[in-house]
Each structure stands twice: as structure tokens, then as C-alpha cells.
From TrEMBL:
Its cofactor is pyridoxal 5'-phosphate. This is Histidine decarboxylase. Belongs to the group II decarboxylase family. The modification N6-(pyridoxal phosphate)lysine is found at K287. It comes from Acacia crassicarpa. Pfam families: Pyridoxal_deC.
Length: 462
């Protein structure tokens, strides 16, 4: 695996993230009379729409919004299970909400609708192109309405290039990949995964060989949703070569929804680069970067896009995007965030999140709760809590026997401490009667050495 050189000249070397020592954590919430973590969720006023407006309307609307704000503020303190950064401030851009901005059409061509933010969009795309080593005159891309749309677009490009291709994707890949296969009616082979969540390379090779007469459209996930496994692009390229696939017979789409903005800032992490024969990369920008509106970046090679495009007279542009109207605000938020954080800011945020993830894993193990944390990852995987109400309270996302916390920027050590102690306390109640229910064994899912069930407990190292 090639080591990540830093994409831009960085002032200082990244600290080794995997150091065992956990320093006391920065950036705690301000001292309040009562910690928001100790307060129960406020009752929310149910929103309704009345048929007649009256003199009390404005006051009522204000109350409903104030109540909703209380609720979501409360929930943000317990938002642990999803890869969304809730720590951002776009107050400086609030005036933009007075405008409808629409970036419909191809950002490189523009459109006849003049209230667009295409210049910001292009600037953001250039930044990502540079990050992923593709020249300005060789790439094409756009800011989509969500990560799913990025995956749909990348896979569609692959299908247009290789119309009788088969999609290969792993069991742990995002559900949008299977959606793409269904929508575009492409035969899809789902490949098993390793314990880390990575695609099972041997199984992938066997499947490709089984369908040797058909081109391969391969979706690789750089940071799987549940475990944060990173499919190894180099290994897959090697497999393709071993199977006798020349570059014109495969297309690789890289789904880097969360890690696309993390791996480039970690020394030694696998590098996302168009210097390798990959076709497209997506990253969700409401995830690590943080944005109040869902959006993602898709970057592909310019030479492929002509295949997809069609002139549309009505908007004076080229029809290259999946969605028609595209909100123009997102691109400005992204431009703003990238400028405010800069390379060093992002690097620091990645480092802090990954450090806190190690802290969380250690705290869970300290309570006798088995857990797994992949290298370069901020996703801590552990057993699914017995009580769904507990999961809901902490916005955990569960799958089978597994649950996880994704340590994002808004998550403080206090939040993690509070979560772990509540989890441990509840667990001792759920499994009090040791003759009946027992904590699930998740050795098969996260590896025996990470599991703390009664059988595997002896193997775990605390
Ligand atoms: C979040 C995610 C996506 C995109 O999801 P959206 O909700 O459509 O933005 C794609 N792939 C992976 C691996 C993800 O985790």
C-alpha cells in the first residue's frame, strides 16, 4: 500500500495517531449550571398548519421553532452513531438564505439561470481535484444533493463506459450501491467481507474469474458505514491484473463518503489518487467537513463525461448531472468551511477525532465491553445494546448484533464518558440475571480478540 504523502505542503508533520497515550481532551462545552447531558429531552410542540392566519400566528410559530431548537440542541448532545459533524458555524452566511440559488446544469458550462453559485462550486471542485491528484483540465465533477447521488453518478459513468459490465461490491458497502444496480439494471455481485469490513479479496478474485467474459465495474468503499473498513485499491488493481483485465475492461468507483476527507490528512494512510487507474471518487460533505445541507462531491475523468451528456436548450447547459435543480448554497458553505479550516485545521480535527475514538474504545474495554477500532478510523464498533430505547436516545445505528459510535467533531470526552457509564450501568441491569440473557458474542463480527463475551473474555487484552 502506498503511503500518503501530504497533498499540500503542510507546516508540521502529523502526530502519530495511534499512540496509546490519551491526553485530556480539548474543547469541552462551556461550564453550565447543569450539564445538558443531565437533562431529559424536552417535550416538543407538535407542528401543525392552520388554515387561517391570525394575530397570534407569529408568536405561535416562534414558540414552535424555539421548542424545536430546544429538542435538537438536546439531541445533538447525544448524537453519537452517525458520521455527521455537528460542530460548525455558518452565521456569516446567513444573508444568503434570502436568495434562491440554483446550480442546475453542468457547473463547467453554467446555465441561463443567473442566481447560481457556480464559481464557488468550481473552486471547491478544484480543491478536491488537487487533493486527489487530477489535473484541472482532466477532471469533471459536481456538488450533488447527497452521497447517494455521488455513488449513482460514479456507477452510471462506469455503466456507460462498460454497458455489459457487472458490478462487484462488498456486503458492507452502502445501500446506495445496490440501489444503483437496481435503478440502472446492472447485474450485481455482492462479495463477502473480512472482519475489518474490507472486501474479501479472495472471494472478489474468484467472482471476477467466474465472470471473466464480462467487464468489471467495481465499487470500493474507503471507510465502510458500519466498521470503517478500507478496501485496498492497490490489491484490487493487482487482482484485476492477475485476472487478465486490461484498463479498458474495468471501472473502479471509490466511495469515500466519510474517510475521503480524513485519510488525506493522516500520515501513512492509504492514498486516494487519480494517478491510479480509478474512474471516480465521491465524498459526502455533510459528513466530516460539516454542512447544514446534505451534499457530496463527485469527481471523475473529463474524457468519460461526454458519454453521458446531452445539450439542453431550456437551461442552456449540458445534461451531465443526475439531479436537475441543485441547491447553490451548499457550494458556498463548502468553500467557506475549506477556507476557514485549511489543511492544518482539517488535519487537527482528524487527529482529535481519532484520538477520542481510541479513548472510547479503551473506556468500553475498561468496562468489559468488547469493541473494535480499525486503523485510521473514528468508528468504534461494539455489541448492540439490548434496549432499543437506549440506542435511540444516543442516536446509535445498529445492524445485527453490532452497534457503533462514530467520533465526530461535536463529540466531547464528557459525552463519551456519559455514554459509557450509562451503557455499563444499563448493561448490568439488562444482564443482571446471568442465568437468562447474556451479552451477545460478537467474536465472529469483530474478531475473537476484540470480543468480551464470556467465552472470549479470556483472550482480550485490556
Ligand atoms: C453515508 C454514506 C454514503 C452516502 O449517503 P447519503 O446519506 O446519501 O449522503 C455513501 N457511502 C457510504 C459508505 C456512506 O457511509
Amino acid at each position: 500500500m502506498e503511503n500518503a504523502g501530504l497533498p499540500f505542503p503542510a507546516g508540521e508533520q502529523v502526530l502519530t495517531l495511534m499512540a496509546n497515550a490519551i491526553e485530556p481532551i480539548q474543547k469541552e462545552e462551556k461550564q453550565m449550571e447543569k450539564s445538558p447531558l443531565e437533562i431529559n429531552e424536552p417535550q416538543m410542540i407538535k407542528p401543525t398548519i392552520s388554515e387561517f392566519s391570525g394575530k397570534d400566528t407569529d408568536a405561535h410559530l416562534e414558540n414552535v421553532i424555539a421548542s424545536f431548537l430546544d429538542t435538537i440542541t438536546h439531541r445533538r448532545y447525544r448524537c453519537l452513531g452517525y458520521p455527521v459533524n455537528q460542530d460548525f458555524n455558518y452565521d456569516a452566511l446567513v444573508q444568503l438564505l434570502r436568495f434562491f440559488l440554483n446550480n442546475m446544469g453542468d457547473p463547467f458550462i453554467g446555465s441561463s439561470f443567473s442566481l447560481n453559485s457556480h464559481p464557488f462550486e468550481l473552486c471547491v471542485l478544484d480543491w478536491f481535484a488537487k487533493l486527489w491528484d487530477i489535473k484541472n483540465n482532466e477532471y469533471w465533477g459536481y456538488v450533488t444533493n447527497c452521497g447517494t447521488e455521488g455513488n449513482l453518478h460514479g456507477i452510471l459513468v462506469g455503466r456507460e463506459l462498460l454497458p455489459d459490465g457487472i458490478i462487484y461490491t462488498s456486503r458492507d458497502s452502502h445501500y446506495s450501491v445496490l440501489k444503483a444496480a437496481r435503478l440502472f439494471r446492472i447485474k450485481c455481485v455482492v462479495v463477502g467481507t473480512l472482519i475489518s469490513g474490507e472486501i474479501d479479496y479472495n472471494e472478489l478474485k474468484a467472482s471476477i474469474l467466474e465472470n471473466k467474459d464480462k467487464p468489471a465495474i467495481i465499487n470500493l468503499t474507503l471507510g465502510t458505514t458500519i466498521k470503517g473498513g478500507i478496501d485496498d485499491v492497490d490489491l484490487v488493481l493487482q487482482i484485476l491484473e492477475e485476472c487478465g483485465f486490461s484498463e479498458d475492461r474495468f471501472y473502479i468507483h471509490c466511495d469515500a463518503a466519510l474517510f475521503g476527507l480524513m485519510l488525506p490528512f493522516i500520515n501513512g494512510a492509504p492514498k486516494i489518487t487519480f494517478k491510479k487507474p480509478i474512474g471516480s471518487v465521491t465524498v459526502s460533505c455533510h459528513k466530516f467537513l460539516g454542512c447544514p445541507i446534505p451534499c457530496s462531491i463527485i469527481i471523475t475523468r473529463l474524457k468519460y463525461v461526454d458519454l453521458l451528456s446531452k445539450e439542453v436548450e431550456y437551461i442552456s447547459s449540458r445534461d451531465t448531472t443526475i439531479s436537475g435543480s441543485r441547491g447553490g448554497h451548499a457550494s458556498i458553505f463548502l468553500w467557506y468551511a475549506l477556507n476557514k479550516k485549511g489543511f492544518n485545521g482539517l488535519q487537527k480535527e482528524v487527529e482529535e477525532c481519532n484520538k477520542k475514538a481510541i479513548y472510547l474504545r479503551n473506556c468500553l474495554r475498561g468496562q468489559g465491553i468488547g469493541s473494535m477500532l480499525n486503523k485510521f478510523s473514528n468508528i468504534v464498533v461494539f455489541e448492540r445494546p439490548l434496549d432499543d430505547a437506549f440506542s435511540l436516545k444516543w442516536s446509535l445505528s445498529n445492524e445485527g448484533n453490532l452497534s457503533h459510535v462514530i467520533v465526530m467533531q461535536h463529540i466531547s470526552v464528557k459525552m463519551l464518558d456519559s455514554f459509557v457509564s450509562e451503557f455499563a450501568k444499563n448493561r448490568s441491569i439488562w444482564y443482571k440475571d446471568s442465568s437468562s440473557k447474556k451479552p451477545p458474542c460478537i467474536g465472529e463480527e469483530i474478531g475473537a480478540k476484540n470480543c468480551a463475551c464470556l467465552v472470549h473474555k479470556k483472550l482480550i487484552s485490556f
